[in-house]
Amino acid sequence: MANHLSQLKQHSIVVADTGDFSAMRKYQPRDATTNPSLLLKASTMIEYADLVTRTLAESKQEAGGNENPVAIALDRLAVDFGLEILKIVPNRVSTEVDARLSFDTTASVAKARSLIARYKAAGIGQERILIKLASTWEGVQAARQLRADGIHCNLTLLFSFAQAVACAEAGVQLISPFVGRILDWHKKNNPGKEYPGAEDPGVQSVQRIYAYYKQHGYRTEVMGASFRSAGEIMELAGCDLLTISPALLEELQRTEGVLLRKLDSAFVGTEPQAKISLDEKAFRWMHNEDAMATDKLAEGIRLFAADTVKLETFVAAKLG
Fold this sequence. Notes:
Layout (H helix, E strand, L loop, with lengths): L3 H8 L1 E5 L3 H7 L3 E3 L2 H8 L5 H15 L5 H18 L6 E4 L8 H17 L7 E6 L2 H12 L4 E6 L2 H9 L4 E4 L1 H11 L11 H15 L5 E4 L5 H6 L5 E4 L1 H9 L10 H4 L11 H9 L2 H29 L1
Parallel strand pairs: 1-2, 1-8, 2-3, 3-4, 4-5, 5-6, 6-7, 7-8
Helix pairs in contact: 3-15, 4-5, 5-15, 6-7, 8-10, 8-14, 9-10, 9-15
């Protein structure tokens, strides 16, 4: 009997949630996604020492004494890791904009364009890149502007239905609802309570968004992310994409048995949802009313920003 991973690939596009090239080769995902935390981890691994050394040397040369070599190195590291990933995965890689720009639309757009320019200089078309932005109001508006340039975005750190609606209205290419972090919040705030299977609030959040998008004809792709267990993944089999860590990819690959598709046209039609539209004020209020989402979005931005600072410190030390 086929393993769960091979069956899952028949229902959803599997994406590698890692910066580890060997894991990508082993599990053969279609896409891959990175973030500052994954880049920090990968940059300190001995397997990538030559890549990091080369990238930092080129960054220093590019700076030429007139620009900040650390800032250049962070961009080059993100793109150089992305270029290596694109030699392995057949479709797209997600490259993240600095989380410290999460509330600055203009700066986010400028950074995204500069990252795309680096990929283009290396011979990679923008159709193979997803620019990752935090799902703040400012991030959504940056994605709206970038879409006009043909630059596709992956809106990350998505926890609330308000964020999902705003992304769809902006024509965002893809969203990444954080299943596991939603569950983490509910467990922390409801000690002792269990959330088995379909009762998992993170799973339910993705199910609601998926159904809403399909019911109203939105083309924005839904990619479940931040999983805590294979069980969460199995509950979302059929979601457009699922980004999965190497540990859970391994578990799915080792597990045999029937894996059923849970999200399909029949699921979409079970509970019709009224279409809503959000301007900035309505978005901020609706998002604010979701305590879990406001907590986890703020925390996620802080954590990604902190790892970016750690990566800057690592790079500065290497540059001397």
